Description:
By secondary structure, this protein is of the alpha+beta class. The chain is built from seven helices and 15 strands.
Amino acid sequence: MVSLTHHIVEQRRxxxxxxxxxxxxxxxxxxxxxxxxxxxxxxxxTDSLGTTDERNVHGEQVKRMxxxxxxxxxxxxxxxxxxxxxxxxxxxxxxxxxxxxxxxNYAVFFDPLDGSSNIDVNAPLGSIFSVxxxxxxxxxxxxxxxxxxxxxLLYGASTILVYTCGRDVHQFTxxxxxxxxFLSASNIQIPAIGKIYSVNEGNESKWSKHLxxxxxxxxxxxxxxxxxxxxxxxxxxxxxxxxxLLKGGLYLYPGEVKKPEGKLRLMYEAAxxxxxxxxxxxxxxxxxxxxxxxxxxxxxxxxPLIIGSRRDVEVAEQFLR
Length: 321
Ligand code: AFP
């Protein structure tokens, strides 16, 4: 069994230029993830369910476990080290964590607890992370193709961690008895075409007619192209995209006629997941452009997302041209 700790050391060999830095950041993310997994498993017993009185920068009510997960990740980076800036869905402003101004070469972006509506009903949840190296001017808002690493934790029947540092995609499963992640799938490849579409169809009346046609296409009967596809949607982006990564198909969170930018956030949802899916051979798109080439304007900006098997995403894109 290959432990994540060992695997991270191996990655050092493959990326010697930033070896120490890479393992330091990954170790902090992993320890934060383990802590969140532990606290989620006890949340019903520790008075941790329910909401706070706060709303986040997107106007969404912050759940107690959202706030707690955010604090856990902030604490993991609070002593500065090589990370200068932490950006989180749950913090209006980027947080400077480096002790000395200008020290630290990296920015880490988080969605600390993805799928918050699942917290109180014991359904899957995730954490998403993205690591960027600051450019010489200290700019941390960079396109997804420049990520140093990205990935997610999925808190489901078991806790898994999936990550890429720009080459292969690997999955690790947490052994709670040992408190360590072990390799459970390496060099994951997404099927080129799938059988599942994943979208919140309750929003259909808000979509453009092109979008309605995309979803209708995947529901249509056509033996030759393996349609209709099955519908799967958990309300947790990490869980839905993970299913697509392993089984193929596509996940959509499109823009709406009155909200063309959609709901998902570029820097800590769409870009890191697209980086993972693309290293596995798939595609992440807004429908008209690659997620990975978007130059971000603000830390919390939203984008429409169509992500998954290459052929399926390309078919969807054709409806939007
Ligand atoms: P947060 O829990 O981090 O706010 O994310 C929830 C989410 O962005 C994503 O996990 C889901 O795919 C999506 O929202 C679900 O949204 P709907 O409830 O609108 O379908």
